[in-house]
Amino acid sequence: MARLNPIQFLKEVRQETAKVTWPSRNEVLISTVMVLVLVTAASLFFLLADQIISFLVGLMLSIR
User: Fold this and answer.
1) What is residue 4's predicted lDDT score, i.e. its pLDDT?
2) Are 50 and 57 in contact (CB under 8 A)?
3) pLDDT digits (tens, 9 = 90+) for 21-47
4) At residue 64, does pLDDT exceed 60?
5) Which of 9, 29, 45, 51, CA to CA, is 20 to 30 A from 60?
């Protein structure tokens, strides 16, 4: 395995990052808002499902 010079490594890293297509500020904002909305929707869904299951289990256990 060849050893790389740290200076050469950093030059190569800089060259590779120059090739990256970075998202615009607007794209980042829209993606962030979409993630927050979907996380909120998922958490509300699981909260509702948990409450319904909890109610049904409590109802079944209190029937004895």
Assistant:
1) 76
2) no
3) 999 999 999 999 999 999 999 999 999
4) no
5) 45
**Of 26, 10, 6, whose CA–CA distance to 18 is shortest?**
10
Measured distance CA(26)–CA(23) in Å, rounded: 8
The one-letter amino acid at 34: M
Transcribe 15-28 into DSSP letters. Answer: HHHHT--PPPHHHH
Phi, psi of 10 (to 5 degrees): -65, -35
14-1-12 Cα angle (round to 5): 5
Contacts of 23 (CB under 8 A, 6+ apart): 31
CA atoms of 56 and 51, how far apart (whole Å): 9
